[in-house]
Design brief:
307 residues; alpha/beta; Rossmann fold; 2 domains; seven-stranded mixed sheet; 14 strands
């Protein structure tokens, strides 16, 4: 039996989805799904104050990365004790988890030479499915089993896509960070399109990028969705309230006037490139075309800011 360490929440979710949760012996401090992970050792901790505002967090992260340091600490001594056979990490984002070069250095210098690193590198939905297959292969799960597990996800995606094909595309702005403003990229624009929307700012398969309010004003989207990475609904709503109260210019926007500003749980959904992106897709569908979809994610996964 292989011992597995997962250093990012999406890795934990993928390993669980593949039916191998019982093999996980260590995880990141952010791994909180599924809920029963308390008995699994936490191996990372943040170097920043995660309870700060988005502006404060951005400043801290910027200062750390300017010095080419990782945003997270790894408990190397505990990792050595666990002596895993497989470490699942990522090379997608320096802010999301321990940097990949640091993971390589730790594994090379402190673990068994046979320890395998599986690195997730998602930019699109296809990449996410490929990552699931890569982890399955690394854990020696046969292709037929993996295919049977992935098939229902693919069917859910196609069902939403078919229903929205003939619908008028609604213009959407997806905001991944609040201070400063960042437009969501990677798999998000693709998910918006499948759900019946047109993502104004995000570019499919490309990194998220900073934007100015004037750009939002110029394109005046029908719907604005806040889904900041690492934030739950309550924390996001508090920051959006401060943003809108301090900057009355938002009230001139179409989305504000029509009460189409939405708050999502960006911690549990959207920013974890694993099997629960299908639930994130369903949330988009509910928001963009409520006349067509109701997957019962409202309140737990998203709310209307005004209601």
């Amino acid at each position: 039996m292989k011992k597995i360490v997962t250093l990012i929440p999406s890795a934990t979710e993928i390993v669980t989805f593949l039916g191998k949760k019982e093999l996980i012996v260590g995880r990141s401090h952010e791994c909180d799904y599924p809920k029963d992970l308390n008995n699994i050792k936490k191996l990372t901790s943040p170097k920043i104050n995660v309870d700060g505002t988005s502006g404060e967090i951005h400043k801290e992260i910027t200062e750390i990365l300017e010095n080419t340091l990782s945003v997270y600490k790894v408990d190397v001594s505990e990792l050595k004790k666990l002596n895993p056979d497989v470490v699942v990490t990522q090379a997608h984002c320096e802010v999301c988890a321990v940097s990949f070069p640091e993971v390589e250095e730790i594994v090379t210098n402190h673990l068994n030479k046979d320890t395998k690193i599986i690195s997730l590198q998602p930019n699109t939905l296809d990449d996410v499915f490929d990552d699931i297959k890569r982890v399955a292969k690394g854990l020696q799960i046969d292709e037929i089993t993996t295919k049977n597990l992935i098939k229902p996800l693919d069917e859910r995606l196609k069902n939403i896509k078919i229903k929205t094909l003939s619908q008028k595309k609604r213009t959407i702005a997806c905001i991944e960070w609040i201070d400063p403003l960042m437009a969501a990229g990677n798999w998000i624009p693709e998910m918006v399109k499948i759900s019946g929307g047109e993502d104004i700012f995000g570019k499919s398969g490309k990194d998220s990028h900073w934007i100015k309010f004037d750009e939002i004003k110029k394109y005046n989207p029908e719907i604005i969705i806040f889904l900041p990475c690492g934030y739950d609904i309550e924390k996001t709503k508090n920051e959006v309230e401060n943003l809108l109260n301090q900057q009355n210019k938002w009230s001139m926007l179409k989305a504000f006037k029509n009460k189409e500003i939405y708050i999502c749980d960006g911690n549990q959904f959207f920013n974890r490139p694993g099997p629960r992106l299908l639930e994130s897709l369903e949330i988009f569908a509910e928001i963009i075309h409520p006349e067509l979809f109701n997957f019962n994610h409202k309140q737990d996964g998203w709310i209307n800011f005004f209601k």
